[in-house]
Every structure is written in structure tokens, then in C-alpha cells.
Amino acid sequence: MITAIGLATDPTIQHFVAKCETIGAEVELVDLHDLALADWMFPLPGRNAIWRYRETEHQLSAVGRYYVRPIDLSSVVASKRDAMSCQAMVQALCAWLETIGEAVVINRPGHFQDNGSKPLHEALLARAGFLVPASLTSSDAETLSAFARAPSVVKTVCGARADCWTVTPNDFCTFRAESGPVHLQRRVEGADVRAHVVGDTVLALRIDSDTTDYRIDSDAKYSPITLPQALTTRMTRTARDMGLIFSGWDFKIDADGQFWLLEANPMPGYNSYDNQLDGSITDALVALMTKGQR
Amino acid sequence: MYDIPENAVLIVSERGDSFADALMRPITASGRVPVRLGATAAARNFTIIVQDGDAIVTPQIPMVIRMPRLSGMQSADARFLKGEALAALWAIAALTTAAVLGRPGPMGFGGGCSLSASVNELRGGLRTNRMEVFMQGLTWPQSDTGWYFKTPDSVEPLNHEQRAAYPGPQRGRYIRPGEQYESVLVLGPDAWCRGGARIVGHDLAQDSIKLANQLGLDMALILWALSEDLRDPCLARITPWPHREDLDFAWDPFVAAAISHLTR
After folding, report:
1. A293: confidence class by pLDDT, cuts 50, 70, 90
2. Residue B151: closest CA among chain A residues belongs to which residue?
3. Mean pLDDT for all residues in chain B
4. Beta-ladder partners of A203
5. Residue of B210 and A77 predicted with greater confidence
6. How much of chain A exceeds pLDDT 70, in percent?
7. What three-state secondary structure class fits A103?
């Protein structure tokens, strides 16, 4: 049995559960929203957890198989008490998942979090040997404007999901430090590549699009691609070093065929890419979680 | 933006931080200018360039990083801007080649330090055989004996009646009867013990330095629980951001080492 833990409204969790059912893998969904407002107990280390919702008691096994997308709802719930429950539940769940050493957990909490700070993330990926486009993080209008003289895109510093836009020096004419800091990255012309690392398996798609951010281009063309062996070896090794079994990697391929790494996502929303790859990402996840069982 | 002098030591902290207050005078006495800013204002004073595998942070200013908070009471826009500033400050403090006290790593501010004692033991390479429980809406165990319980917002531990009446989340840990405690303050390769009791088979100062290092902390106050006969130390609590009033036992040597580190 695989247990998927996440928000029932999350398209990625919905996709995972549906695909598991399609391929005949036994799966149950634990909705974080229900769990936050339920009675629960997470005993550490390495014991079964229990939760009771609407008079029904459920167990989470300390030797189970878990696909987890822990999302803290505390900033969007109405009452302070519910916010505290949401935050405490996610903290408790993550602590419990980290200590159940005999379970398979994708991804086990305790992995690197630097994706939440883009300049740090890019610096660490560059130190791991990847080609990473130059970037600038600043609140100084003149410095930002100077960087934007060469083709650049703007992204959130914290990695929050937002569309990616091209910027020019003019965009900073009226910029004030109070709006900063801003993260700019040198734009790399070429096709996008989205790769998913599942253990030692790498599943990649090439994406051709005329827009800066292919995610908002309904005409984008997706095709499976095999990445160079040296690159996949570096990706799987780095993912392991970061504590990640499952990760989503975004690259650009320049005119010389070089792969420029934009980011490695520790909780990839992989559903749309999986559809392009006939479900092979879910297949790989399920295979990893049920190794020795099926 | 704030015009930070070249010979400054930047203290990034919120108002009312007794540790930050207490550092101002020794920094001044060392000939440096203490500049105290909140996380957002501090982050806006720096620029980070990542290029050709290198990260350059300017200006190069030694800094002390205290626990940053992302308040839940602000508007969504204000929370976003604060989140952006905290993400930048994380990178600034992690990547700068200037001295930092409270340097974050890939796990974030506070290094690999978790709210869970069991997780801290696991990450720190310690034994994890002492039960800890997180729960909500349940009362377990049925008596007070041998357990220490707190809620996320309680300062003092809860007794059994308080626990039974409290509907929200709680965290508890088993404690041995007659347990004794020892505090150890760690700063890089140095450590100071409060009581200095001799523990059979352990050097708590060295154990604490190793634990802080395993958790990616350059500074920490570690509370060890000892059996009644001062044996068998277990991790009770670890904080990367101790209050000044908890450091009386080692303040003078600690602050001398901290200033030396920051003004190296």
C-alpha cells in the first residue's frame, strides 16, 4: 500500500493517486486539510502514527511507503487556532516522516531547502559543477538596470511560483529600494528541458516555445529527450547529496548544445510532464516505493 | 537603504532581542560600529552576484544573524516582500566571505536544528531511543508521570489537567525521574559548561561542539538531561538563538570570542 499525503485539491497529488490506480498500485490519500483539523498523534522515533477524523481512526505505519507533498496551510486559514493546528501538524508529520527509517518516504523531510533562496540555490548548483546562468540579487536601481542591459529575466528570490518575465534597464527607472530585493538572471536563448530524477532514473522532456516562460504557452511542443550521461550522473549525485529521491530539474539548451541549469525543485509539480511521458515518472516513483513488494 | 559604515558590525535582529542589545557595547568597545537592522532593511543593503561558479556578496560586513520571523499578521503583499527579503538575507549570510555569527546553510536559518528533539538527535548522530510525541485532541499518557509537555505558544510545561483541557497541538517528551540538567554554550570550536559536573564516559563540551557542527550551527545553547547520578546524557533542547539572560554563566568569555570572530 502506498500512502499519498498532501492536499486533496493539489493537482499533483490527484494525478499521482489516479495514475497509481490506473497501473494497479494500491494507494490511499491522506488529505492534509482533514489531518490538520483531526485528532492526531505522531510518536517518535519509529512508531506508528494515528489520527482520528469523524469518528474513524486511521493508522500511518512506521514501515509504510509514502509519497508526500507537505504544504503548510497556516497562512490561508481563517482562525489563529486553526493556523496553529496546521503549522504544528505539518511540523509533527515532517518530524515523524524523518525518523521512520524503515519506511520509504518520497521525499523524506530533512533535505536541503536552498531552493527557497534562489541566489543561494544557484551558487550551490554552480559549486556542484553545473553551468548556471549569471544572476544578480539587489535592491539598488542602478545595479539592477546595469545588469539588465544584457538579456535578463526576473524571478522571485524565494522561489515562490511566479511567471518568468524578460526585463530591460527601463524597468528600473522608477524602482525604489523598498520594492526590493529583486533577482535577475541572464537569459539563455534556446529550448527548455525539464528533467525528473527518481532515484537513479532521469526522465527528461525538451520543450520548444516562443515565449519566455513555456508554462504559459499553450502552443509549446514537448518531446522526450535523452540527456548526456555525464549530466545525468551529476544530477543523480547532486540530488542524493541534497537528500532528494525525487526532484524536478529545469535547463535551457543554448545554441552550442550546452545545458544551463536554472533550478532543481525538491517538490516538483510533475503531473503535466508525466502526461507528456505516458506516466513514466509515476511508474518510476511507484517502482521505487514498492521495490521488493510487488 | 541604510548607509552602513565600512567598520560596522551588522546585527540583524528584531526589536526586544536581549542578546542583540547586549552585543552593542562590546562591539563599540572593540572599535567597530554596531549597526542594528531588521531582516528586511538589512537585506536591501546587499548585492549578490553569482557568476562563473562564484558568489560575490557586497558590501563585505561582518554580521550577527538572529532568528528572523515571517509574521502571519501582515497582508499578503507585505508577507511576500518580507519573504523575498528573508530569502535574500539567507543567501547573503550563507555566501558572504565576511565573518558571520549565526550563518545559515542549505537547510536555512538555524541550520539543521528542528523543533523535534528526536530529529535533532538523528541529524546530530546521537541515540534516538527516548520517546517524543506530537499530538492534538488526544490525552496520552493518562498520567503526568515522566513526561514533559508544551504547546507551541506556552512558555512553561503543562500539567496533566492543563493538557487534558487543551484542545490544540502539544509536544511531549519522556523524562527520567530525578533528572539533572547541564547547559553548554557553543561558539565554533569553543564551549562553556554551566555546572561543569563530571559525566562518566562523556566530555559534554566536546559532545556539544560535535553536535552543533553536525547540525550546521556555529553557535548554540545546548541543554543536556542527565540521570539522577549524573550519567547517560541525552539531548533535552538546543537553540541557535539563546537569550542573553540564559548566558550569564559564560557571557564574558563568550562575548570575547564572538567579538574576536567578528572582527578577525
Report:
1. low
2. A88
3. 92
4. A196
5. B210
6. 99
7. coil
Nearest CA to A201 among A109, A106, A122?
A106
Decide if pLDDT at A294 tops 50.
Answer: no
Rg of the Cα atoms in chain B: 20
* Element containing residue B203 per DSSP (H, E): none
Instruction: Encode pLDDT of A205-249 as tens digits.
Output: 999 988 877 888 888 999 999 999 999 999 999 999 999 999 999
- State the pTM of this model: 0.94
Residue B230 CA to residue B200 CA, distance in Å, equals: 8
Whether B4 and B35 have beta carbons less than 8 Å apart is answered as yes
Q: Is B72:A75 a contact under the CB 8 Å cutoff?
A: yes
Q: What Rg value do the Cα atoms of chain A yield, rounded? A: 21
User: Which cell numbers in the block locate residue B29?
Assistant: 568597545
Length of chain B: 264
Measured between alpha carbons, how far apart are the two ends of chain B, in Å?
A: 26
The residue whose grid cell reads 530525578 is: B178
Domains and CATH numbers, chain B: 8-101 (3.40.50), 132-174 (no CATH)
- The C-alpha atoms of residue A263 and residue A257 are separated, in whole angstroms, by 18
* Closest to B242 in 3D by CA, of B197, B188, B186, B190: B186
**Band of pLDDT at residue A77, cut at 50, 70 and 90:** confident
The CA-CA-CA angle for residues B131, B137, B139, to 5°, reads 50
A113 touches chain B (CB under 8 A): yes
CA atoms within 13 A on the CB side of A40: 24
Cβ–Cβ under 8 Å, residues A66 and A246: no
Question: Is the pLDDT at B238 greater than 90, yes or no?
Answer: yes
Judging contacts by C-beta atoms under 8 Å, the chain B residues touching residue A238 are: none
The letter for the amino acid at B126 is L
Q: What are phi and psi of B164, to 5 degrees?
A: -65, -30
A291 touches B at CB < 8 Å: no
Instruction: Copy the grid coordinates of residue A180.
Output: 526590493
CB proximity under 8 Å: B 20-49 to A: 43-49
